[in-house]
Structure formats: C-alpha cells, structure tokens
Amino acid sequence: MYKNVRLVVTLFCLLLGVVIQLQAQQNAYHEKQRLQFHFSPPAHWMNDPNGMVYYEGEYHLFYQYYPNDIIWGPMHWGHAVSKDLVYWKNLPIALYPDSLGLIFSGSAVVDWKNTSGFGKNGQAPMLAMFTHHSMEKEKKGSIDVENQSLAYSNDRGRTWTKYTGNPVIPNPGIRDFRDTKVFWHEKSKQWVVVLAAQTQVQFYASPNLKDWKLLSSFGADQGSHSGVWECPDMFPLQVPGSKEEKWVLLVSLNAGSPNGGSGTQYFVGNFDGKQFSNDNPADKVLWLEYGRDNYAGVTWSNAPDGRRIFLGWMSNWEYATKVPTTPWRSANTLARELSLQTTPLGLRVNTQPVANMKKLRERSYSIPTQTISSSLDLSKTSGLVPTQLEVELEVKLPVDSKVNWGLELRNGQGEKYRIGFDAVKNQFFSDRQQAGNADFSAEFAKKIHVAPRESQGRLVKMHLFFDVSSVELFADEGKVVLTDLFFPAQPFSSIALYAEGGSIELVKGQMWALKGIWK
Ligand code: FRU
C-alpha cells in the first residue's frame, strides 16, 4: 500500500515537472514586455554584444551573459547565430569564467592565413580576443585587474579553447583596460587591436595574434570625457563618390550621453597602421545615436560585400539592472548598416536598418496623403496595432512652421508614448514620461529625449520600428537615430498621427505589421 502511494506521488511529481517545463518553453519569448523581432537571450542577464564575426554563412553574436540571474554577475559569453541578421538561433554558452577571471567584452576574427597557428586540417580558425577581469585582484584593490586573452575555435564557433599563453596583452598599469576589438590591417599587413584604456583608446599590433606591441594612444584630449571610455571599434568606410576611405572610431562612453547615461560617440579620421588622427577639432563631439537605449555597440568582422553592420545593447547602465522584465533582461538593437555621408559640416556616419528587415513585413497599409492639423487614428483606418509595426512617414512642413507632430501610442490604461518632430526647436523627440512603468528607476523617464535635426529643408522623414517595448527611429534617411525602451502596463493598442500648433502635409505614409522572429 505504502509503496503504491510512493509510486503515485513520484509519477505525479515527474508529470508536474514535465508540464512546468513545457509551459516555460511555450511562454519563452512571449512573456510580457518581451520583444518579438529583436534578439534577446531566452532567460537571464545580457549586456554588450561581443565577438561579432561572419563565417561560413553565419553571423555570430556573442554577448556578455550572466546565466544565473537577471542582474549583472560573473560574465560569460552567450552565443547565437543568424543567417540573415533577422532570425536568431540560440547556442550553448561559448566562454566560461576561469582562473584568470570573468570574460568581459571583446571581438572575434577569422584567421584566414592561420597566422596564429591554431588552424587544423587546412581550416582557418576563428579567434576570439576578450578581456579577462579578475575579481580577486579587484577585491584586493590591485591595478592590473584587466588583461587581454585569446580563445580559438576549429568547429565554426561551436566550441572554444582558451589559449594556454593567456593573457596576451598583460595590464600595463591601467585600472580600466578592456574591450579589445581586433582587425586585420591590410596596408601594414598586421593585426591591430583597439582597446579602451581609462579615458582614451590604445592601439596594439601583432603578426600572429599572440605577441602584441603598443602602437599608440588616442583621445586623451579628444571628444567627450564625461565618463569612462568602453567598447571601442574601428573600421574604414568609403567616402561617397570617391575611392577614398576614412576610418571611423566608435567609442562607448559611460556616462554623459546627450540624453543622459551611457551612449556612443565617434571620430572620423585616418589610420596609418600606427596612429589614428581626428579630422575634426578635438572638442567636437559626434554622437552615433540620441536615444538612451543603445550602448556598447560594435560591428561585424568579415561581413559579406564589405558591409559595415552594427548592433548595440538596447539599454543604459543608469537603469539596466532594474528594467521590469523577467525571466530575461535586455535585448539588442536591430542590426544596422553604417555608411559615411558628406554633409555641409563634414563627413558623418549614417545609420539604416539592414535591408533584410523587410522580410518581416506582413500586412501593409498606405496612409492616404492629406493635410493633418489634429489627430488621425491610424489603428482605426489600418487595423494595425503598434506592438510589431514598421512606419515610414514623409511630411512637408509649411514655411516658418511651429508645428509639433508625430506618432502617439496609447493603451486602455491611459498610458501614452510620443515620438515626433518639434519644428520650433528643429529637433526630433521621444517622450516616454507617461508610457507606463517607470517606478523602477528615477532616471528612466525624467525628461523628453531630444535629437537635433541635421538635414535642411521642409521635407522631414521618419522611419520607425515599434516592438512590444521599444522604438527605433531612423530620421531623414538615417542621419539621426534614436532608440528608446518603454514598459506599458498593457501593450499599446492604438497609434495616431498628430499635429499640434500648426498643420503638416503628409506626402507619404506606409505601415507594415511585422512578423515575430520567435516560434
Ligand atoms: C560595457 C562594459 C564593458 C565591459 C562589460 C562588462 O557595458 O562595462 O566595458 O567589458 O561591460 O560586462
């Protein structure tokens, strides 16, 4: 009798376990606030994208990952791959902390000529170069906490072996010394690393990825220094209409971005294999983005057709560990293509969503061209809701217009989010002050975020992507970008095009419902 009861209880527990697991699997990627067409890990904490490299038909995305909680903790490299930068497949953790420390941010390359000697059977190895961060040294108050190390893979990034000679760039006596971005510099025929060293970057060179020598430093007196420099990236981009190339140096900065907290500045100039020189005055600060939720972004190595594809972490250190999501925390921005553009002020970096995003377009609706001087409920006419939505708008402003126009998202809870253009201030804006839960941090929704317009003329263009709890604005064909999160209590269920303080002429308006990327 007792035996039978035990058997029944055991069977019941097993069944319950299976049901709970199935339920969790079904809910995965469909929880409240979960983004539907952006990459986020199935569960737990993520920050910076790492090791982005294209190899044998796959875009690899590694990321700062703490697999035991939804707050920052001992860092691993999580891993996912994509064939098209739109759909992602999760893979097992690639790098675990070891006796040298946690695995902080870094990059990856394909060592085509096997300069490292890690190749096998004539196959080029993949090399990851990352920062080892020692918690033991940090606790002791030592300076040499951060050192640069290598790992390699001979099976298309599926498994990784750490180099026995690590670290390959020992700490030279700089406390913040991290985030290696490695690339092959064809002109000087050497590997070059750019890394963040306190409030500047340093360049190192190597013939074989193992032996490194310091080349130079850049930035002590350049750009913004309102925070520590992190996660640099450097790459050449074609000057439009010429054969000339310029080098772009991205530097993430925590804190001090235009609307507060973490952000990314960039420099345009030359790199001669030794030193980077800035084409702009030392005190000129160029921002890659004006939203508050795009940080630590870097670009893919080895992307096909020389394309320069960028992806950032869609959060901000001011509140990242507190945002109301569970069982995961943080997503990435959409993959974006960077290019140079000639402007009256000089060369500027332009950002556009990758063309493959069009794959997600489902139902489409053309907004009839018209003059708008109040509010037009687009959900009513289109039947589309702003949870997974792409919108393209072209608006002509009257001469000397004082109009404030844009899109307003609402839900049944009376919450609203606005994104648009203020003609008086000549700036784009994003207002999440009444867009839902902001109690988790006093920093999250304390003001309207603004971005100066960089184009002239009366035709203003906005291209937007709304996911469940995020928006990405590419304004005036990618001259100004703004990425923001919001956390409505219920998903936004309506979207309206409004104009206040004047009228606008809608020249073009198109909307698409977007498919989700998770099953
Ligand atoms: C940037 C950063 C990097 C560091 C990593 C640690 O967000 O602080 O500088 O390598 O995060 O997770």
Can you offer a commentary on this structure?
The chain is mainly beta. The protein contains 3 helices and 35 strands. Strands 23, 24, 26, 31, 32, 33 and 35 form a 7-stranded antiparallel β-sheet that branches. A 6-stranded antiparallel β-sheet has the order 25-34-27-28-29-30. Strands 4-3-2-1-20 form a 5-stranded mixed β-sheet, with no helix packed on it. The radius of gyration is 24 Å and the shape is globular. The two termini are 45 Å apart. The model has no long low-confidence stretch (mean pLDDT 96). Beta-D-fructofuranose is lined by residues 47-48, 64, 75, 104-105, 131, 178-179, 230-231, 296.
Structural class: mainly beta
Helix content: under 10%
Averaged pLDDT: 96
What is the number of helical segments per DSSP (H or I, 4+ residues)? Answer: 3
Shape: globular
**Fraction of residues in β-strands:** over 45%
The CA-CA distance between the termini, in Å, is: 45 Å
Outline the biggest β-sheet. 7 strands, antiparallel
Q: Count of DSSP E strands?
A: 35
> What is the CA-based Rg, rounded?
24 Å
Unreliable stretches (pLDDT < 50, length at least 5) are none
Ligand kinds: beta-D-fructofuranose
